[in-house]
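**User:**
If convenient, please work through this fold.
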Amino acid sequence: MKWDIHSRKMLNNGTSIPRFGFGVWRANAGAETQNAVLWALQAGYRHIDTAAIYKNEQDVGQAIRRSGIDRKDLFITTKLWNDDMRSGRQMQAFEESLEKLQTDYVDLYLIHWPVENFIESWRCLEKIYQSGRAKAIGVSNFKVHHLQTLLEHCEVVPAVDQMEFSPYMQDNESVGFCADHGICYEAWSPLGAGTLIEEPRILEIAQACGKTTAQVILRWVLQRDIVVFPKSVHQKRIQENADIFDFELNEEQMQIINGLNCFRRTGSDPDHFDF
């Protein structure tokens, strides 16, 4: 698998997404987000994942403008928040995201969580997609039964499902369902919010590969054919996270990490959330 930081995966609508990206969840608005995004772009990242609820879309847009990189060379994802779905503000929320990001389109627009009326919201995303202002649309935190419901009612099949996925939290049922239905699987919180950094079995693999545990985990996600976008606000860590294209895990190492699954979440269960 001869990938690099710019390698892409084809989506079901004929567009493509960088396999590796940069997330800004929990990055503070203002200088922290702007600096982190600039450092990521300088390190070669071209895929930026944000969301309305992160309250930093404006800083992502500002950093992109400051970088001088052509918009067409970037892949920007943002997400529709739950309150905007419940209050019927889907279209207005999308316009606000575009304005904050300083762009006239996004590459991927996602429903953030499967709130009660997600079919109604999906209809809005389909209209946005058909207008050309989102090059692809998808969902986040949708389990198999959520996807099944959506597929029964949609005109446009979601291009992406973004789920919590790490060595400790592998929803392999969802991974398989998405593969069977042509839906690209993305991993958020791949490092388990830091809980995996001292995992002995990954440390042993990292020492054998001459890499950090974070680099091994990110490489493992990629080799599972899953799009991944680690988050950091530290320049050194941002650069380290991207240094995963000069080695490959062997089958034994992959199986060791696969075997660590214990369904330990760092975020909310999509069947039980109260926000």
